UniProtKB/TrEMBL annotation:
Residues 17-145, 341-451 form the Plastocyanin-like domain. It comes from the Bacteria. This is Multicopper oxidase. Keywords: Membrane, Metal-binding, Oxidoreductase, Transmembrane, Transmembrane helix. It holds the Pfam family Cu-oxidase_2. GO terms for molecular function: copper ion binding; oxidoreductase activity. The keyword Transcription regulation does not apply. Belongs to the multicopper oxidase family.
């Protein structure tokens, strides 16, 4: 449904059996009965209203990851949708927020450029469990600038959601506990580092094979795994010896110019928008997308079966993709330091020594001010900030890394590293969160509030 300025979407969150592995039904929590949830496509400059109805037996929160929207539609942990059937679960009154019963309208003003976003659950303390059970979907924002480029379009513009899951013999998800929280009996130290699966799913299917013609394709790669990082490579690499991937976009949309990579490291929640040209392969080649950071059976992600069709390819990758404003760190008005580490002497995770308490604000930022945020780590932490995209200015081992280009909302903070990003919040005053996107770290306290005025 649409009117002159607004497009309307409806999503029902409900339990459903989903077939991930052939012949096995897996009880899941879903958006509209499928995994991934329906791909929402909205237009920059138009308002989108997404009505989420909660038919699950627990409170939910929806967050549009990478979205630029007012605080009351951002999915703050206290802004829950309680089950509509009036079932037992009540709101934890110690968490500030505005709980509603049954359904909530999320309003996205559309004041942002084309980008690959995704929506997922953000329940406080349970995000790992709910996302693992299926609450994730793509939300693509399109605009005239991106549409006008001669990049592959239509059925050659394909979002790829990569997740890892473990299944019990009867098909049930083998997630260790609803609350991966160390006070819950039966949950061991193993989960402190996050929950890994041993089956890689791409758009919900294990090791899928995609038939491709000998032409260019655009893939919007999203790592929606709870904590697994992937090192993506093609095997065999293109026989011409030139770099494999041409990256055209990152979390926040198009790069200014294309960038090439032999392999791409993708931390949880990061997006890489890449073009692959299968005309570089001989007809009949099976090209495997492999994971060089594999453990167990997670070395194979998917494969592409190159057909003998070579349609005339009218696409191109322009040298100039977009004009991207450069955030100059020398113009910053303040610097903030955030330490991401396990909580001293206590199992769990924290930012600046504070395990997450809603309402405890670690940064009060002024809208329009350019700030530098420095993140320091003990182990790997994919750090994510809500509300605005940012730019990586440096890492302790030098400048921005090879996967830091463009507008980012999630960065792969490496072990024992410090990095700095330039960020400027705009438009919406209110309360938001930033956190580690290793979802078990997030659930175990590695999150904090910031406010904008
Ligand atoms: Cu993708 Cu606050 O999360
Ligand atoms: Cu987010
Ligand atoms: Cu972490």
């Amino acid at each position: 449904r649409s009117d002159t300025a607004t497009d309307y979407y409806e999503i029902t969150q409900r339990a459903a059996d989903v077939e991930y592995l052939p012949g096995l039904r897996t009880p899941s929590w879903t958006y509209n009965g499928s995994f991934p949830g329906p791909t929402l496509i909205t237009r920059s400059g138009r308002r989108a209203v997404v009505t989420h109805r909660n038919e699950l037996p627990r409170p939910v929160v929806v967050h549009l990851h990478g979205g630029h929207m007012p605080a009351d539609s951002d999915g703050y942990p206290g802004d829950t949708i309680l089950p509509g059937d009036g079932s037992s679960v009540s709101h934890d009154m110690s968490v500030p927020g505005n709980p509603v019963v049954g359904s909530r309208d999320y309003v996205y003003p559309g004041k942002q450029r084309a980008a690959t976003l995704w929506y997922h659950d953000h329940s406080m303390g349970f995000t790992g469990a709910t996302v693992y059970r299926g609450l994730a979907g793509f939300h693509l924002v399109r605009d005239d600038e991106d549409d006008a480029l001669p990049l592959p379009k239509g059925d050659r513009d394909i979002p790829l959601m990569i997740t890892d899951r473990s299944f019990a013999a009867d098909g049930q998800f083998a997630y260790p506990s609803l609350a991966p929280n160390l006070t819950v009996p039966g949950v061991t130290d193993d989960h402190l580092n996050g929950v890994l699966g041993d089956v890689v799913l791409v758009n919900g299917a294990p090791w899928p094979a995609l038939p491709v013609d000998r032409q260019r394709y655009r893939f919007r790669i999203l790592n929606a795994s709870n904590c697994r990082r992937y090192g993506l490579r093609l095997d065999p690499p293109p026989p011409d010896g030139d770099p494999t991937f041409t990256q055209i976009g990152s979390d926040g949309g198009l790069l200014s110019r294309p960038l090439t990579h032999e392999s791409i490291d993708v931390a949880p929640a990061e997006r890489f928008d890449v073009v692959l040209d299968f005309a570089r392969y001989a007809p009949g080649t099976r090209v495997r997308l492999v994971n060089t950071l594999a453990t167990d059976r997670t070395g194979e992600v998917m494969c592409f079966d190159v057909s003998d069709r070579t349609p005339q390819d009218t696409t191109a990758i322009p040298d100039e993709l977009s004009s991207v404003e450069y955030l100059d760190p020398r113009q910053a008005v303040r610097t903030r330091e955030f330490l991401f580490q396990s909580q001293n002497g206590d199992p769990g995770w924290s930012i600046n020594g504070e395990p997450y308490t809603p309402g405890t604000v670690l940064a009060h930022s002024r809208l329009g001010d350019l700030e530098l945020w420095r993140f320091t780590s003990d182990v790997h932490h994919p750090v994510h900030v809500h509300l605005n995209h940012f730019q990586v200015t440096r890492r302790s081992n030098g400048g921005p890394g090879p996967y830091d280009a463009g507008w980012k909302d999630t960065v792969d903070l490496l072990p024992a590293q410090a990095m700095e990003v330039a960020i400027r919040f705009t438009d919406y005053p209110g309360r938001f969160v930033f956190h580690c996107h290793n979802l078990e770290h997030e659930d175990m306290g590695m999150m904090a509030d910031f406010t904008t005025i």
